[in-house]
Amino acid sequence: MAGSMSEAKPTGALRRLYDYCLYLMSKPGGVWVLFWVAVVESSVFPIPPDVFLMALAIAVPAKAFRFALICTVGSVLGGMLGYGMGYFFMELVGHRVIAFYGMAEQYLQVQALYQQYDAWAVGAAGFTPLPYKLFTLTAGAFELNFATFCLASLISRGARFFMVAAFIYYFGPAIRGFIERYFNLLTIIFLVLLIGGFVAFKTLL
């Protein structure tokens, strides 16, 4: 998520920001808060949208998948924004964002991942606890194919958010603690299954 689910437990200023976002979501039209959090999280915002998605889905389980769709659309649009920032303004803005989050060392590592795995790197970052904002910015900076980037983002972010929605829809609010505790493991397992499915499909063809 653009970080791990450990970010779902902010402290200090982040905690106040988190509480304020939850407060706004309790108001009419609060679902737009989820959308905009998903947009800005993909490039600059520090708190992953999953925690807000869970809050809304728990409040209205019948709309969990609708909330997941809104979150996915917002996140992919935010990924495009991050790509644009990296493509056009990496020196002016992108490097400052990366430095702010202490990810300067990982910047060159991501470049190597793109050279070796191309869209798989974006897909892994979009679904797992890898820092997604780092990958959106660097995708633009390293001029990864934009269509490939968008497709990988759509698949990975959609799978991630709909997985969270499905857990809450079928198991109810009690599953929230389980998701927060084992989210990293769940995403890794799901990613392995997803890649295995693609490999099997390609082999069968």
TrEMBL record:
This is SNARE associated Golgi protein-related protein. Residues 47-169 form the VTT domain. Keywords: Membrane, Transmembrane, Transmembrane helix. PANTHER family: ALKALINE PHOSPHATASE LIKE PROTEIN (PTHR42709), DEDA FAMILY PROTEIN (PTHR42709:SF11). GO terms for cellular component: plasma membrane. The chain crosses the membrane at residues 33-60, 67-90, 182-201. InterPro entries: DedA_domain, VTT_dom.
